[in-house]
Amino acid sequence: MTQTSERVPAYTSEHPPVPDRDELRARIPGWGADLNKEDRPSVPKLQLLETGAHWDFPERQPEKGPRERSIEHRFLTPVFGTVQPLSGPSGAMRKFAYKLGEGRAAHWLILLYADRVDAAEHHLRSLLTLRPDNPITETGIKAEFTHNGMRSRFGRKRVDVKHTWMDPIIVAGPWILSVYFMRRLLKRNK
User: Fold this and answer.
1) Whole-number average pLDDT of the chain
2) Residue 126 and residue 154: Cα distance in Å, rounded?
3) This prediction's pTM
């Protein structure tokens, strides 16, 4: 990099000089390949050819309650899922996330955190039932010992070996914390 005695700002209010097409084509290999429609590789796909295929807008699924949808879309898709309606704090988080545009990182981050909150809600709900989740069999810890889990990790250049030490903390941590807080709550109520 050469140094100059005068300091020229990188960005100015003037529009930078725009090189002409021939100069750009000579300097950058492949520049302007899509300017001429005949040169575009996708032109046959862009042509409306009669193939016999037809499609009509499908009959709309009835909306029995308000559904979350992106603000970028005018209406819901003709068919949408109704298996898990929004509920609890995770549902409130999702409703708020859908008020933001899909182009914002906050929209997606709130949806990710809402999934984590939803998982925590289900773990707590499971602990309060007569048949709580079984973390030993449902998380694969038992399979680590019965199906050569540890032996399959070493000597094979697997990436997940680096975080293996964290797995018990991540899996068992919420269970240990919830049992600890339940015991404290029960002792306080006695």
Assistant:
1) 78
2) 35
3) 0.48
Query: Which of 84, 105, 107, 104 is CA-nearest to residue 95?
Result: 107
Distance of CA 107 to the CA centre of its chain: 10
Say which amino acid occupies 67.
Answer: R
DSSP 19-73: PPHHHHHHHSTTTTTTTSGGG-TTHHHHS----S----PPPPPP--S-----TTS
Delimit the domains of the chain by residue range. 87-132, 134-190
CA atoms of 46 and 91, how far apart (whole Å): 41
Tell me the backbone φ, ψ of residue 7, rounded to 5 degrees: -95, 115
| Structure token pair of residue 22 | 């021939």
pLDDT attached to residue 167: 76
Dmax (CA) for the chain in angstroms is 86
In whole angstroms, give the CA distance from residue 110 to residue 85: 17
Dihedral sign of CA atoms 69, 70, 74, 76 in order:
negative
